[in-house]
Amino acid sequence: MAIYEYDTAQGAVTAFYQTISTNSRAGYYEAFLGHEGMLNISETTSPWNGIYREKWVSADKWNPWSKAGYIKEIEVEEDDEESASDGVLLKVKPSPPPPQYEILVTMDKPVHQPHLENFFNSIRGKEKLNCPAEVGYQTAVSVLKVNEAIESGKKLIFKPEDFIV
After folding, report:
1. Are residues 33 and 72 in the same domain?
2. Would the pLDDT of 22 be above 90?
């Protein structure tokens, strides 16, 4: 696991990257956790894809995405269990799950096909690359520097010159 810390104009951001030998139980996906919700996505249509809204965030804030057809709230039956004490001093219950939304945007192509189409179309002058070489290089530096951190057993501080080709 590698932990990244970034200073941004909006404040500090922490990210981590973890690689575990996967199996059919966990699959593969990327998770984005924010203060208003969480997004799980994978290049494939998978049961792990989904968006979860924090309960304290108004559903009205998410309605524009529902109306645009990108997401749909998954209706979950509420627990009708009585909250009366009926003589019990302490009742332990699991935390209720956050509201979940289904991602309605799907891809009907093999997972790498859009990348290849973009590459060939950029060579033909029809599009610009979605990920220019400079961005790919910067990404590779961030990922490969993890090996240096492991070998030294230390936290690494990136310098701007680390990202220059």
Report:
1. yes
2. no
Does this model's pTM top 0.70? My answer is: no
pLDDT (0 to 100) of residue 25: 67
133 shares its domain with 62: no
Cβ atoms of residues 91 and 126 within 8 Å: no
Structurally, the chain folds into a number of domains equal to 2
pLDDT one-digit tens code per residue, 94-141: 887 888 999 888 888 888 899 999 999 999 999 999 999 999 999 999
